[in-house]
Amino acid sequence: MSGYSRPVDSFRPGRPPPFAESADPRASFVSVQSYHGDDDIEDEELENTRYDDRASDTMSVVTLDQQQHQHQQQQDFPPPPTRKVEFPVPQHSSSSSAYYNNDHSRDDTYMAPIPGRQGLRARTTISRRTKTVKLSPHGNFCISQRVPEEAKARGAKEKGEEFESMRYTAATCDPDDFIAKGYNLRCANYGRKIEIFVVVTMYNEDAEGFNRTMFALAENIKYLCEKKKAGWDEHAWEKVAIVVVADGRSKIHPNVLKVLEVMGVYQEGLTQSGVNGLDTTAHIFEYTPQTVLDAKMQLWGAREGMPPMQVIFCLKEKNLKKINSHRWFFRAFAASVDPRVTVLIDVGTKPSPNSLYSLWKAFYRNEQIGGCCGEICADLGEGLAHTKNILNPVVASQNFEYKISNIMDKSLESSFGYISVLPGAFSAYRWVALQDLGPGSGPLSKYFDGELREGVARDSSIFSANLYLAEDRILCFELIAKPNANWTLHYVPSAKAYTDVPDSVPEFLSQRRRWLNGSLFAGFYALANINRVWKSKHSFLRKCALNVQWLYNILNQLFSWFVLGNFAITFFFLFAELEQLLVDPNSPTASSSSRIVSVVLNIARFSYPVVLVCLFIISFGNRPQAFARTYKAVMFGFGVIGAVMIGLLIRRLISTINFLSTTPKSTYANMMNGLLAPSQQPTNDGAQILVNAILNQMGTVMTKQLDLQLSEERRESLIYCVTLASTVGVYFIASFLHFDFAHMFTCFIQYLVLLPSYINVLTVYALSNLHDVSWGTKGDTRPTSLPTVQSTAKSSDGIPIAEVQISSSKTELSSHYLEALTDLRQISPNSERPAATAADQEDSYKSFRTAMMLLYLGTNSVLFAVGTTQASGSGYITILLAATALLSVIKLLGVFYFLLARAVARVRWSFTAKKLSRAAGARQEMSQADDAPFLDVRIDDYKGSGKRA
Fold this sequence. Notes:
Blueprint: E1 49-51, E2 61-63, H1 64-71, H2 73-76, E3 128-134, E4 141-146, H3 149-152, H4 161-164, E5 165-171, H5 186-189, E6 196-202, H6 207-226, E7 240-246, H7 254-263, E8 274-275, E9 278-279, E10 282-287, E11 292-293, E12 299-300, E13 310-316, H8 321-337, E14 341-346, E15 350-351, H9 355-365, E16 369-378, H10 384-391, H11 393-416, E17 426-430, H12 431-434, H13 443-447, H14 462-467, H15 471-480, E18 488-499, H16 505-528, H17 540-561, H18 563-582, H19 590-619, H20 628-661, H21 664-676, H22 686-737, H23 742-746, H24 748-768, E19 788-794, E20 800-807, H25 810-825, H26 843-867, H27 873-929, H28 934-941
Parallel strand pairs: 6-7, 6-14, 7-13, 8-19, 16-18
Antiparallel strand pairs: 1-2, 3-20, 4-5, 5-10, 8-9, 10-13, 11-12, 14-17, 15-18, 16-17, 19-20
């Protein structure tokens, strides 16, 4: 791939750093940003610095030498046009030696080893020295600092401010005021048009999960750089920026900071606690690293085919929850950059190499799409780990649930144009679609209503609190219901992302508590506001389709509400059938055996409500970690019940098929003909004639009654078979249509066994903790105190001058960098912080929880009482089965339509691709000359050409 001026060999112990042996013309670059020369820097340097006009209102200390260097950046930065170097696929073979400038001295491994500590007994302390710097006219503190040479050793690009120095900003404002207060971002100052703007939100996750996500994003950028169509080329990394938002300086895992330090994005000695009396709200670091670490803590750089990445690291001073992290991303950073597509990713999620491109392509082909998501897959690992996860029922059942949800639910909802939830772990939105209509009115304003902010009024009711446990569902509805707009939401199955799923019962319960309660109230919100769809600019046909989906969602909501009662009714009838099966009245020991079997079955039958009551008791306000063994035992018991119910269903299915395949009417007719045969003989006996007439009439009546009974039994048997076929068969058909069916053979049984626990344990725990609206916040630790920035005077041009304490030693930075590398190599896998206590809840929340539980139990108890009566029991079971069949058929029809629409879209797009390609060639020269990206020109010229992506 072109775009690399010269590959730089990796830094190894015993080998001098790059550029150490030759005189570097940049050696005179000495300022607060650079420690390429002496360690001690005199304050008199301030006289040789001036304000960087290109950085707008943000302060940057720049020497005169650096000004000349930056002026030449555009001439130095592009690669020689005669050289073309492709990103190689990492391999152990030496066949790619041409990429390394014929350097045959490299070892067999393609990743450089981490340097050892070699005598370092204690971690180097970063010392701070007092310096005098200029602030911006707004009084903002922003400074650039040279990164250690070791951080650039594996990169291919040598020159350019973004590769040589890291930029730090101490933001003292609210995210909404970021632009108004004069702050900006480096990528915006370069005038780059960002096509894909990614945010990675994190809390206290470990370095392994962080590396998994960052390495996957690097592979996605590499994929974009290798594309030679749709406007992407070797400079694609300039059109992608990644924002990492850490929720709290005291929360972030220290190993993650070491990873960022190794990448060159973070330096410990720059952070400031405040500026001119204003507390720092966020520490913002900007750098374009050319190295990345994978989950095994191995370094990857240009030699391994990794392109540069524009990274913005936002370290929030306080822990203000994930929604505040998203507010920093949307209100502060996205508003500064003005991207085309914004992508939300949770740390630990691993998108496949083509996922970002697949999501972007959906927006590119259809300008009506306002948001889309890919397929969230459970990361089952490889080899032995994969087998272990498949054998773990908790993990396997979640894998099946994820697959079916994507294959059936997402396909159906995408056909309507409204997906109820675009998962926050991996989803994308068009930036224009998210824009508010006015102050406090619009998708983003409604999305951020759930954040508790000082000085901002907010609905603090328990309904609103639970509603914003699923704030991503609110954002989805606000997009399709946006006034004077016709945005739709779509599912992109080719964009896959892998995430770790809970493998323990307590963690599983905590996660599903948030999901179930949030989706319940978000569903109520969407149903209650369906009238807003008619105020949008959707076509009349689309509005009608959305209202049909509304009816479908009502039916789903009813099923979700009465799931416990329906399970109890099914449990009651299946155990009644089991009793009839096991108690044989013709057995010689019928009296004793029947009594024993009846006692056992009655104990099992009445143990269900007892276990249910115990579940309610232990779920009220108790953490699942405290009753982990109890929950496991209960889930095991429900698993046994699930296995028995599966056996009964299979046995009844076989009996039904045998019944439908036989001809009991013919058998009965033959028997009656045999009994009535003597009556058909001619006779002159009057008494015999009367008897024969009576027998013939009785046979006719009994035959008609038999016909009615057989007809009723055949109808019920047919409904039973159709229901099972529509539930199980539809799963197989839909999976085969998507060419993704392995889960049907590896995880289906585990899901069926755990289905009673999904219905009972998860539902009871979620509703019993309705008052808990937290995200499982963990204990706080006291952060390290930081120095502050204080203005002391003003320069002759009126710019504030302040004294700051920052790190200023090249030796300390390099030592700290190498120690971070060594520490990362010694990290044990899956190291996490221990969980801590939960926060207290208000009495009003608990009162609402109690009232909701009484309503839920009351309605389900009434349903159970009505459904198990002798008169209505059979009829209700028939209605329940028919409704289940209807929902399954609707989902299958949605899958058919979704796949058909995608096939038609591909055909339509193939006809426009050539036209777009010709336009690309004609406009390429103009695009390279203009600041506006080539992509904008093409999309505007052919707007709507591929409308059904």
